[in-house]
Amino acid sequence: MYGVQIAFRNYNPVDGFTGSPWVGLQHFIRFVNSYQFSQVVGNTLWIAVLGLLLAFPIPIILALLVNQLQSERFKKFTQTVLYSPAFISTVVVVGIMFVLLSPRSGLVNNAIQLAGGQPVFFMGSPEWFRPVYVISDVWQNAGFSMIVYLAALSGIDPALHDAAKVDGASKLQRIRHVDLPGIMPVITVLFILAIGNLLNVGFEKALLMQTNLNLPTSEIIQTYVYHAGLQQAQFSYSAAIGLFNSVLNLVLLLTFNWVARRANQATLW
Amino acid sequence: MSLNTEAVAAPAPVNQPQPLRRRSTSFRDKWADSAFNIASVTILALSIVAVVYPLYFIVIASISDPNAVYEGNVWLFPSGVTLEGYQRILADSRIWNGLGNTVIYTVLGTAISVTTILFGAYALSRKDMPGRKFLMLLFVITMFFDGGLITKYLVVRDLGMLDTVWAVVLPGAVGVWNLIIARSFFENTIPGELREAAQMDGANDFTFFFKMVLPLSKPLIMLMIMVHVVAHWNSFFDALIFLNDDTKYPLQLVLRNILIQSDVSSAGTTGGDIESYAAAQRIGELTKYAMIVVSSLPLMIALPFMQKHFTKGTMIGAVKS
């Protein structure tokens, strides 16, 4: 945090953190006015929002379904299987994507060609970056996120379910009126946390998935910071962009926490 | 799961007023339930296939003849079984070197993180520690708001840790989320009376911590070890920005360079495919499949054992402070 001050200075290594001259908001203004600004911020928001729309509800749905399963063994099995990709590293997941989606020898393109289509160069086309990114994210993490909801579901008093059964509620009705309200506090807290990290998600993966060809959609704020800062040594400029990202995040978090409090839901503090 | 058993044993609500129109399970309701069952089992079965098939395919492709994979003849079973991909990997010194580094980083990093988290979280769990609330606030702020990549890099550089093991294991050694989980665990399982009793018997804080707290915290310690082993085994980013010397690269970074970067560079040169180049390409693909298997195998084998701890960890973590 102490080092954040370089975002407001013209950092140079000779003078160090405290010796470099102050320049105020110059770097922020330069970023906002740069031609990359709308593209980079737009890409970040696109991925974040798409990710949230898909990746947030799917684990909840999976947990509700798994929780309804009768057989303990099938339940355990499903859980373990859906959970396993979370232990594969991002590098390997992206590696898998590259081999499966390869335009010449990949499984997916073989299937497309078998169905009479033209091979698609998924990793090299800007329009495919977002769908591939989000879907692979769900593939890898949905099972892991599901566990929290399952834990919350197991905490619901079974008497409520029995009472609903006596009243003749179907399974679907019990999910709607017993399970969902029961895990609502957990959903709210996790949603706020997700919002708080909205703009930080998946930096490593985006960096790995980046190719020169998909750069128009794959360059997000964080990868831009990496390129401008560490590869081109514009330390102050990119620190300012990083700070911009963090502030934006904090604002989102505070806003949603406030909204949740107004709506009388569980809040973070 | 054990949470359920008590509640099940509780008597059914006998005194509740009977609902006005008590419906018997009619044909319609049964139909709705079995429709639901079919739909839900179908969805789950499809999800399982969607998760497992890509992994299964990688495994069978890694032991199949590259030409068969290339032509799309490998779907359910390997074809023209060969172990060439694995042989090539085992002969590749980069892989062995990366593996060795990863083991060092994992052992050292896990030891540092788990030790600091246990000590720190215990201190933070003690209600009589001065400045406890304030310290916790400082930690939590960093969860949502940090200095960013550049300042992290500059700090590590100014500390002279670039290109050393420390750059990989020290920054981020204390994860706030894990600290909070550990603190909640201590608060909920170590009653204050126990400490008082120990103090009566003449135990100081250190004796109490080592003789009482740690033995009572085995599930937590297991969880913390698992979390950090997985994290270190899979991490590449710190190594990417802090290490220039490729003999210090961990396995994941070696993998990235072979699996991902080589594909990107070859993607640009699709123009004139020479015969020998194509052959090399196919062998390259085969090695990639084998490499994915080799690097994920250790964690996948350990998964059934680890899962228990992770599920427990979610329960601990779910207890709000």
Tell me what the structure shows.
The complex is a heterodimer of chains A (269) and B (321). With 269 residues, chain A is mostly helical. Chain A contains 14 helices and no strands. The two termini of chain A are 23 Å apart. With 321 residues, chain B is mainly alpha-helical. Residues 1-14 and 264-273 of chain B have low confidence and may be disordered. The chains are: A mainly alpha (269), B mainly alpha (321). At the A-B interface, helix 4, helix 5, helix 6, helix 7 and helix 8 of A face helix 1, helix 2, helix 7, helix 12 and helix 14 of B.
Write down the overall geometry of chain A. Answer: flat
In total, how many beta strands of chain A?
Answer: 0
> What's the helix count of chain B?
15
Q: Could you tell me the radius of gyration of chain B in angstroms? A: 27 Å
Chain oligomer state: heterodimer
Number of E-type strands of chain B: 0
Distance from first to last alpha carbon of chain B:
22 Å
Query: Mean of residue pLDDT of chain B?
Result: 76
For the biggest sheet of chain B, the summary is: none
What general form of chain B does the structure show? Answer: globular
Instruction: Please state roughly what percent of the residues of chain A sit in beta strands, choosing from under 5%, 5-15%, 15-25%, 25-35%, 35-45% or over 45%.
Output: under 5%
Order of helices and strands of chain B: HHHHHHHHHHHHHHH
User: pLDDT under 50 segments of chain B (min length 5)?
Assistant: 1-14, 264-273
User: What is the string of SSEs of chain A from the N terminus onward?
Assistant: HHHHHHHHHHHHHH
User: If helices are DSSP runs of H or I spanning 4 or more residues, what is the number of helices of chain A?
Assistant: 14
CA gyration radius of chain A, whole angstroms: 23 Å
Estimated structural class of chain B: mainly alpha
The N- to C-terminal Cα distance of chain A equals 23 Å
Q: Into which percent range does the helicity of residues of chain A fall?
A: over 70%
